[in-house]
Amino acid sequence: MPSTTPARAAAAAEPRSVYFDNAASTPLDPAVLDAMLPYLREHYGNASSQHSYGRRLRGVVETARRTIAGLLNAAPNEIFFTSGGTESDNYAAIGTIRTLGLTHAISSPLEHHAVLHTLQALERVGDIRLSYVRHDAQGRLDLNHLEELLTTHPRSFVSLMHANNELGNLNDVEAIGRLCVRHNAIFHTDTVQTMGHYRHNVRLLQNHFLVGSAHKFHGPKGTGFLYRSAGLPVQPLLHGGSQERHVRPGTENIPGIVGLAKALEIAYQGLDEHRRYVQGLKDQLIRRLQAEVEGVQFNGLSAEAEQSLYTILSVSLPPSPRNAELLSTLDLNRVAVSGGSACTSGDKAGSHVLSALGTDPDRATLRLSLSRYNTADEVEYAVAQIANLFRAELV
Ligand code: PLP
After folding, report:
1. Is there an atom of ligand 1 within 6 Å of 224 CB?
2. Aminotransferase class V domain: which residues (predicted)?
3. Domains of the chain
4. Is the minimum distance from the CB of 164 to ligand 1 under 6 angstroms?
5. Whose CA is nearest to atom 8 of ligand 1?
6. What spacing in Å lies between the alpha carbon of 379 and ligand 1's midpoint?
7. Contacts of 125 (CB under 8 A, 6+ apart)
8. Where does the pLDDT of residue 343 fall: very low under 50, low under 70, confident under 90, or very high at 90 and above?
9. Section 104-132 average pLDDT
10. How far is CA 260 from CA 76, 190, 213, 337, in A?
11. What is the model's pLDDT at position 228?
12. What is the mean pLDDT of the segment spanning 192-207?
């Protein structure tokens, strides 16, 4: 890539707006929308009805289930449709702990709140004791500590994510799975950020649960699934009809389920190419930020290609009086990113992940998260906008 001065890059890309918040939600793939539209327009029945409208939709739901199962090398009866990642995480944790009468859970302070708050709520009502695996300043989990915890508390519920949604850090879920098997633990992995970005093969993993949320891989919002390994009995959280084999009652979101399956199918078809492309954009971002922003750092393992998710870069910016307006200034300049700061006591709005890592609260964090719809020009434009903020600071 030819080197471009920030001013020229900004001028060249002036009219564009840049969406670098794909870890929050991704744009819908037009082919996914096309697949969904007939189920919003023409096929409006209820999949539980006995007439032809209902029977057609029942077939559609089961086809989507087989598609997802096939991609994960799972059996269709191991896939349950839900409203997304949060519900799937809650289902796995609450359903398993209650059904199996587990009294101890192991997680990490770096987990998403969909897991952390769920387990903490169970601890508050006295259902479980919760232990946290230690991690280092980069967010690497201490698997020796996990083994110690599992030795002291066999048959625990273990919830450790595949990729961290703020840092992009990847956990070694194969190694964690082996430890869980050895200690007879139930292993749930929040795969919300990696579903559709890595190939998950449930026959090679030792997981009891994986989760998917369509809007993280160019599908619609409010639809997702839970993979639950066969043979694990788990009570429903909701009570009602017989949908999803009584496990998750409620009228099926047919357009959502169709879009979910289509989005995952497209993601798997293009996975290697998309991965190379997006990793290239991330490498460019790292290089250009290092060249243009003095004192830039990267949180956790975010800049380590082998140890982090290729869609997320967590950027740590030097202390500056302008850091408080960083996000809004970038937004005014048409660059959409997420922020983050370490929580200091009393500052509940801060990031629990950065706080757990002990990052300097005076440095600002930007989470830049990419997708296959982003371009190298957008990287140049965004870097120029970030660099300009620091340049303006100097004058
Ligand atoms: N888990 C992780 C790691 C996430 O990043 C998210 C969403 O950002 C969730 C769970 C929640 O997923 P959903 O938005 O589908 O409820």
Report:
1. yes
2. 18-381
3. 18-29+270-394 (3.90.1150.10), 30-269 (3.40.640.10)
4. no
5. 24
6. 25
7. none
8. low
9. 98
10. 15, 17, 8, 25
11. 97
12. 96
